[in-house]
Amino acid sequence: MLQNFKNGYEVSAKSEIAKKENNDCVVRALANAFEINYNMAHVFVEKKFNRKKGKGTKAFNSTLKQLSKDSIDFQPAGQLDLFNQDGQSFNIEHIGDQPKLGGNLVNRKYKHKKVAYTVKAFAQKFNKGTYIILVNKHAFALKDGIIIDNQNYQFQGYRRVVESAFKVK
User: What is the pLDDT of residues 14-37, one digit of tens each?
Assistant: First the structure.
């Protein structure tokens, strides 16, 4: 069981949109990483990543790499969000991809060959700052070494391989 874990669903608790959604890990990952509400993240992912309701986010890694070249701007999502934050702007930096994908995100603890980080090892190494982490068909946020993810991954998620990582600035 991970001791450095927080339930990622808390960000969507007050959202009516979230109650009707499935396969929205990217929306929750961005909401948690950027500290914005679920509805703002939902609109952003729908527009920038062409996400369809109830479907996963296709080409998230490649699109996020493209977006990392500019700042990311969030605006309140519709008139229901009049009391939420004004527009916010963030920069993200692509940290790297796993060695299997030809990347440089290598766990230096292993000397015999290039080995990718597991979620647990990445969280221990990169324990300062905010990150968006991509694993096999899933995304979550990491803040100051705390994994913010689906609750079921608190028990079984620490051994997943980190495929790609982005730092939020």
Answer: 899 999 999 999 999 999 999 999
Give exposure, 89-102, as e/b (b: 16+ Cβ within 10 Å). Answer: ebebebbbbbbeee
pLDDT the model gives residue 120 = 92
**In terms of residue numbers, what domain contains 72?**
5-168
Q: What is the CA radius of gyration of the chain?
A: 16
Q: Say how far apart CA 59 and CA 122 lie, in whole Å.
A: 23
Question: Could you tell me the sign of the dihedral formed by the alpha carbons of 62, 78, 90, 71, in that order?
Answer: positive
Q: Which candidate, 136, 142, 143, 141, places its Cα nearest to that of 162? A: 136
The domain tally of the chain equals 1
CA angle 103, 106, 108 (to 5 degrees): 155
C-alpha separations of 87 from 12, 34, 106, 134 in Å? 19, 12, 36, 26
pLDDT confidence of 45, banded at 50, 70, 90? Answer: very high
Q: Is 146 left (phi over 0), alpha (psi -120 to 50) or beta?
A: beta
